[in-house]
Design brief:
The complex is a heterodimer of chains A (396) and B (207).
Chain A lengths: L8 H16 L4 E5 L3 E2 L5 E2 L2 E8 L9 E5 L25 E2 L4 E2 L4 E5 L14 E2 L4 E2 L9 H14 L5 E7 L1 H12 L4 E7 L7 H16 L8 H4 L4 H15 L2 H7 L19 H16 L2 H13 L20 E7 L7 H13 L3 E7 L13 H17 L4
Helix pairs in contact in A: 2-3, 4-6, 4-9, 6-8
Chain B lengths: L1 H4 L7 H9 L5 E5 L5 H10 L2 E6 L2 H9 L3 E4 L14 E7 L8 H11 E9 L4 H10 L23 H11 L2 E8 L11 H7 L2 E7 L1
Parallel strand pairs in B: 1-2, 1-4, 2-3, 4-5
Antiparallel strand pairs in B: 5-7, 6-7
The chains are: A alpha/beta (396), B alpha/beta (207).
Chain lengths: 396, 207
């Protein structure tokens, strides 16, 4: 079942065509801000496109909006089919009618992040100055820039206060940034499996990924689109390395062990003997069709640059001083990318700031990726926390 | 509140006494809050700003569902980040016997809270003395139901022991109560009876 897929190249080409089409003319909702946006790096983005999807209905006083922030390679299709891959929404077990983020009660918004590749401005977008795709001419993006772009959309929708902002991993970084930058606009915040900065180990893994992309001759200095190629080998290796960090040693042991792939004995070759190899090959291969290599560089860089305390004179508590936002943090025991200690650092800062904060570490061997999986403990926490927040906000 | 005071309402007489101490709107931190029983009583009756720390994920989930702000953690590691006097009350109810360093914890309680409430099972109670002195066994009671090899309790004390600790630390005792096995408070005019007949004790402390 884990055999590396041998899709015909025609099918792969079709997925790539769809991905390119979605980057320029997304199936989701799209808003263009012609005034553009000033970026943290100092550059001005001349035109800003924000692609987003919504679920549920905004109530009359616009008080039931929930913003979902996606992770590194996520997208706005949190609870609907991804138009490129045709796969189900990545957080369909969290969002929907009767789900913890109940679309019968809340108006859910999910925005493709700045620098990504599914409709919001990113390296595949057309640079109005040249008429060609930005590629690596796009200025470097930060998590704060992503949040600012989301805020422009929220303002455009006429929403004064978000009932909740929720996200895991890089999505959690955006949640923290939202709470720090726009405290009066965030009633409740749920940062999951995240940290207030990217650790040196995480930066290291991202750098391995970026170097793999840039070492691929097909990367062409970032101008592969003009050459009609994509650095699929490099991007695939980047994804394989990153994917290991989303799992855990115990999880790999349980799921794969040293099991061989479709064979009874090792092959004395460099083919994929082990199931784990085959699994990673598959992860890498499917990824390159749906995700832009330059976007991967930009979005990983945004994560690396994230350091919330540094923006507040080195004291994380200052980022949340006087906040009225109620927080609920969740971490996972086997997550070594964003270990529980990172959540504790945030909690201690929130305590120091006198914030209302809840937290639990969920026991699981599924590693960092747990936030995307079917974990009843997580759903119970989110549902309980949101319901009580909804009562406090007068939503029920 | 008389029926409640005798402990019939919750089965936890110490909780009723604690609730009676607290004023509406106070800021309260309950360390080892379990499923949030005390915090919920406080929120419902007094509309306090209630926060909790609880070690079990199940307890935290129950608290969250009840709308309480609770972090998974414990008194050994998670008190240092709270600013001085950030709460009106910090409560350590029936938990001092499980913390690693009770003296350090009590110091943190009175630092974080304007007042601290500590309740604990009294190891000087006659029934416990009987089990140790006459039966020659480690004590087991309704409140301390686990045998010596399974109990999480590592720092037992008597009421006199606790008083000695408070004196040594130079803390003020704002109020104190000793409860009999039936949950009723022992009269204040017989303090010498407390250490023998008090099944549990409640101390209100300040710096």
């Amino acid at each position: 079942m884990l055999k590396a897929s041998k899709k015909p190249s025609k099918e792969k080409a079709q997925v790539r065509d769809k991905a390119l089409k979605e980057a320029l003319t997304p199936s989701s909702k799209l808003i263009s801000f012609e005034r553009g946006m000033k970026l943290d790096c100092g550059a001005h983005l001349p035109e800003l496109n924000v692609a987003y999807e919504t679920y549920g209905t905004l109530n009359a006083d616009k008080s039931n909006a929930v913003l979902i922030c996606h992770a590194l390679t996520g997208d706005q299709y949190a609870a609907s089919n991804n138009p490129v891959t045709g796969k189900l929404g990545w957080w369909l077990n969290m969002i929907g009618p009767g789900k913890p983020v109940d679309t019968e009660k809340y108006f859910v918004i999910c925005v493709n992040v700045l620098g990504s590749c599914l409709g919001t401005t990113g390296p595949l977008s057309i640079n109005p100055d040249t008429g060609r795709a930005y590629g690596v001419d796009l200025p470097v993006i930060t998590i704060h820039d992503m949040v600012k772009a989301q805020n422009m959309l929220i303002d455009h929708l006429g929403i004064e206060t978000l009932f909740a902002v929720i996200g895991g991993s890089m999505g959690g970084m955006q949640v923290l940034q939202w709470a720090a930058s726009f405290p009066e606009k965030v009633f409740a915040a749920i940062p999951i499996a995240t940290g207030a900065h990217h650790s040196p180990q995480n930066i290291a893994f991202n750098e391995v990924g970026r170097q793999a992309v840039m070492a691929d001759p097909d990367w062409q200095g970032g101008r592969y689109m003009q050459e009609g190629v994509i650095p699929s080998k490099g991007l695939s290796v980047a994804r394989m390395a990153a994917h290991i960090t989303y799992l855990s040693e115990e999880g790999l042991q349980r799921k794969f062990g040293r099991n061989l792939q479709d064979k009874d004995a090792i092959g004395f070759s460099f083919d994929a003997d082990f199931q784990i190899e085959s699994y990673l090959h598959y992860q890498g291969m499917t990824f390159v069709d749906r995700f832009d290599a330059n976007s991967y560089l930009y979005v990983t860089r945004a994560m690396d640059y994230f350091d919330l305390a540094a923006d507040y004179k080195g004291v994380l508590g200052n980022a949340f001083m006087g906040t009225k936002t109620r927080f609920c943090l969740i971490s996972f025991s086997s997550d070594w990318l964003f270990p529980t200690e990172e959540s504790r650092t945030i909690i201690h800062a929130l305590n120091a700031a006198g914030a209302s904060v809840s937290f639990a570490e969920i026991e699981t061997d599924k590693g960092h990726d747990s936030f995307l999986l079917d974990l009843p403990e997580m759903f119970d926490m989110v549902e309980g926390f949101l319901s009580s927040a909804a009562r406090a906000r007068g939503l029920e | 509140m008389n029926a409640a005071k005798s402990g019939f309402a919750t089965g936890r007489a110490d909780l009723e006494i604690i609730v009676d101490l607290i004023k509406p709107g106070d800021r309260v931190l309950d360390i080892g809050c379990g499923d949030g029983t005390l915090l919920r009583m406080l929120e419902e009756r007094l509309d306090v700003d209630a926060r909790g720390i609880e070690i079990s994920p199940e307890g935290v989930t129950k608290c969250l569902a009840a709308g309480l702000s609770v972090i998974q953690g414990n008194a050994n590691h998670d008190l240092a980040s709270y600013p001085d006097k950030s709460f009106d009350w910090v409560i350590l109810s029936q938990a001092i016997q499980v913390v690693h360093n009770p003296k350090e914890t009590v110091r943190e309680l009175v630092r974080i809270g304007k007042k601290a409430i500590v309740s604990f099972p009294n190891f000087g109670h006659w029934h416990i003395r009987w089990q140790v002195a006459i039966e020659g066994r480690m004590p087991m009671t309704n409140r301390l139901p686990l045998p010596w090899y399974a109990t999480p309790n590592i720092h037992f004390c008597t009421i006199r022991d606790f008083r000695a600790l408070i004196d040594e630390m130079g803390l003020k005792t704002e109020a104190h109560f000793a409860l009999r096995s039936d949950g009723r408070a022992i009269a204040r005019r017989h303090p010498w009876l407390w250490n023998l007949f008090g099944r549990e004790a409640i101390f209100v402390l300040s710096e």
